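Report of the visiting student (M.T.), summer placement. My assignment was to run the structure pipeline on a short list of targets and document each run. The first record concerns Acyl-[acyl-carrier-protein] dehydrogenase MbtN.
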Amino acid sequence: MLPNLYLSADEKAELAAFTDSLERFCDAEIEPHYAAWEKAGLVDRELFRKMGEHGYLCADVPEQYGGVGASVHFSFAVIEVLSCRGYGGFVGGLQVHTDIVPPYLLHCGTEAQREYWLPRMVSGDAVAAIGMTEPGAGSDLKAIRTTAIRDGDGYVINGSKIFISNGQHCDLLVLAAKTDPAAGAKGVSLFLVDTRAAGFARGKNLDKVGQHAGDTSELFFDNLRVPADALLGGVEGQGFVQMMRELPRERLIIGVQAVYGAQGALDVALKYVQERQAFGHAIGQFQNTRFTLAQCATEVATSEAFLNACIAAYQQGLLTPEAVSALKLQTTEMLGRVADACLQLFGGYGYMTEYPISRFWTDARVLRIYGGTSEIMKELVARSILGR
Ligand SMILES: Cc1cc2nc3c(=O)[nH]c(=O)nc-3n(C[C@H](O)[C@H](O)[C@H](O)COP(=O)(O)OP(=O)(O)OC[C@H]3O[C@@H](n4cnc5c(N)ncnc54)[C@H](O)[C@@H]3O)c2cc1C
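After the run finished, the structure tokens were exported:
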């Protein structure tokens, strides 16, 4: 509804060319296969390599690590386009690979860790995942029980993770484990686990309510031995600090997914209401339909304005944890409302999987849960305004 006021005319033109080519890539390489991937429960592994070849992965990674060093807008544009097209399941895993894991390496990793993993991630040769959640610890991350105990020239890891996006495809797992199980949050460290290591096992691809094309798995570590240089940044006990530092980007990208998922739902509804007839009129002529669509468009536009302000703050290093928590809360709750209202406009057809609106609706639900639940976002915002 409003142009992005934070971008120059040149940046807008470059981004438009980038997204045009991505749209063509989606038409050729994703759309013809997406229904089959939804049924299979995961995308074809080759899709990551193809996206890498075209420069669509980790676009803001600097050139020295194999990227193109573009602004974050290019990386976010990939999530924008795919979310708008209704590929929510794939986006759930893609954003972990392309927006969540690279900053851990760039900001917290050693030079050797960056040089090894980032070029592989940019090309799509290595798919990345992040393993924080465990069966007994989700919102309360400091309660994780996976341990990494120092043993000679490495660490021995035991435990398990659950709900891990890209769990089936991942070659790199950024793993949260306790190097000092008695020290609470201060005992948490992050490891860069090469998933070919002995002692690493993937559980089955979990059967979800939505986001079917994204693989989500349990992972098991049975005396998994990693070298000492797999410790992120080479310092023990920094895991919690590192996670808190990088969570804003995770929540920001979920905001992108939410806003453009809602825009996509609105787009398919706008088309449908002009075609479907009832009582001698297109249903788009009923006042209720017009008001519903106006309400949805207003919700998307106001969320997008907040998102753009948060992206601009992020680029300047000024995005606060409370602002991005408010963004995640606002945009993901908004997506739920918009997807639901748009589905209603389809009547019974909206409940049929054959109609894309049904996928927008089922894919939307989990955004209020992953990356920190809406309740945890409210806690974080409340803490910042109440001072405790
Ligand atoms: C499809 C999918 C993909 C995911 N991908 C990943 C991934 O790649 N990596 C990863 O590590 N994790 C991933 N997760 C896990 C996700 O981040 C967690 O599910 C989420 O953080 C919530 O944790 P939980 O499921 O243990 O719920 P719980 O923490 O048990 O919460 C249960 C309920 O209690 C509420 N609650 C908890 N604490 C409080 C509180 N203090 N105040 C008020 N209410 C509270 C919650 O809001 C929720 O409503 C994924 C989950 C899903 C479903």
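The chain has a mean pLDDT of 97. Residues 96, 129-133, 138-139, 163-165, 208, 211, 216, 366, 369-370, 372-373, 375-376, 379 surround flavin-adenine dinucleotide (CB under 6 Å). I thank the supervising group for their guidance throughout the placement.
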